[in-house]
Amino acid sequence: MIEIENVTHTYGHGEQSRTVLRDVSVRISEDRVGVIGANGSGKSTFVRLLNGLILPTQGRVRVDGLDTAREGRKVRQRVGFCFTDPDAQIVMPTVAEDVAFGLRRRGLSATEIQQRVRQALQQHGLADHADHPAHLLSGGQKQLLALSAVLVTEPSLLVMDEPTTLLDLRNARDVAERVAGLPQQVVLVTHHLDLLADYDRVLVFDDTRLVFDGTPADSVAFYRKLMS
Ligand SMILES: Nc1ncnc2c1ncn2[C@@H]1O[C@H](COP(=O)(O)OP(=O)(O)OP(=O)(O)O)[C@@H](O)[C@H]1O
């Protein structure tokens, strides 16, 4: 369960400050939740609140009862985050090392780590690339690597901020289909509205506010009208 209570977020201080989210309150228990809205409307800021990457200036964010401001480490163990650009997430030289990186400090044996890494790579079509240099993968493969590196840690919530924006249509569909089949709760920010057709709920942001909250069809219709 995600609970957002009266959250306002302001970047910077004084004259340079900029409020980008205003008084957002929402409780999310559905498995598949989309987040849409114009550029700069506050979507990324909203989802970054969910794993404590950003702390609210006012209000409170809780994930499974854990306050992100007080229990950031525990929250981050539960909440996996995928960015638009997988290069921002790839930290190790080879594919297998990168997936293993997220498992450090989890108290697992080397054998367990190897097993989990092998399984994650198999699940996401990277089994043949385990020893390849990560930076030489294609864009689509890099996003699958980023996804594998997050999922290997077995989060209960997966937050994705426009993970298909840099991908061609085939790779975008591939990522979306993999995400659809996951056991995790998923919160997906996207401008690819068709990816949300089967989602349980879609939130629409506009100019710092959560302005609509409904089914994919209703939310997309609202958003299209907003943009016309
Ligand atoms: N670190 C920051 N410091 C100051 N302003 C920021 C920072 N990050 C984002 N902003 C501003 O906050 C506003 C909301 O940004 P945010 O990235 O949350 O929007 P978004 O809806 O995700 O946009 P997009 O669809 O373009 O990714 C934007 O005007 C942006 O310039």
From TrEMBL:
Spell out the Pfam families in the cross-references. ABC_tran
Q: What are the residue boundaries of the ABC transporter domain, all occurrences included?
A: 2-228
GO MF, one term, reads: ATP binding
Among the entry's GO cellular component annotations, what is one? ATP-binding cassette (ABC) transporter complex
Instruction: Report the domain of life of the source organism.
Output: Bacteria
Q: Matching Gene3D superfamilies, A to Z? A: P-loop containing nucleotide triphosphate hydrolases
User: What SUPFAM superfamilies does this protein map onto?
Assistant: P-loop containing nucleoside triphosphate hydrolases
**Keywords carried by this UniProt record:** ATP-binding, Nucleotide-binding, Transport
Instruction: Give the matching PROSITE patterns.
Output: ABC_TRANSPORTER_1 (PS00211), ABC_TRANSPORTER_2 (PS50893)
Membership in a protein family = Belongs to the ABC transporter superfamily.
Instruction: Supply the PANTHER family for this chain.
Output: ENERGY-COUPLING FACTOR TRANSPORTER ATP-BINDING PROTEIN ECFA1 (PTHR43553:SF24), HEAVY METAL TRANSPORTER (PTHR43553)
- Protein name, UniProt field: Biotin transport system ATP-binding protein
Which source organism?
A: Haloechinothrix alba
